[in-house]
């Protein structure tokens, strides 16, 4: 596969992760209010919490997102990415100081932690051993 294709796939994956994270930030409180059962699914909530924990941790450590690094490495040597890639990149990557992103990611992670307690996930179902 060419570097351009791999970079485009990495960009698509990055966009999917961002969409998943943003969706959860809105869907969890809205779903709790509307009575949507899926917002209390433990596995989904754990994945959402873990994803945002990784984002916040990378920011606190002063590191770029590993998806960004992989995308840059895959697209190395490409002079000008395709228009759609440039458009998506302009939506994802903002020319702001790192501390702004660190503060924002920490605030978002604190919000997700608060949602864990305000809209608690359902307890895991344990398989029945047949004994009572």
Characterization of the model:
- The protein is an all-alpha fold and 132 residues long.
- Helix 1 packs across helix 2 and helix 2 packs antiparallel against helix 5.
List the helices and strands and how they pair.
Blueprint: H1 3-34, H2 42-60, H3 66-74, H4 83-92, H5 98-118
Helix pairs in contact: 1-2, 1-3, 2-5
Measured on Cα atoms, how large is the radius of gyration?
18 Å
Provide the structure class: mainly alpha
Q: Give start-end ranges of low-pLDDT stretches.
A: none
- What is the helix content? 55-70%
Order of secondary-structure elements: HHHHH
Give the CA-based shape.
Answer: elongated
Mean pLDDT, to the nearest integer, reads 86
Termini gap: 57 Å
Describe the main β-sheet briefly. none
Q: Please indicate the percent range of residues in DSSP E strands (runs of 2 or more).
A: under 5%
In total, the number of domains comes to 1
Give me the number of helical elements. Answer: 5
Number of strands: 0
Question: What tags apply to this protein structure?
Answer:
132 residues
Give the structure's gist in a few sentences.
The chain has 132 residues and is mainly alpha-helical. The protein has helices at 3-34, 42-60, 66-74, 83-92, 98-118.
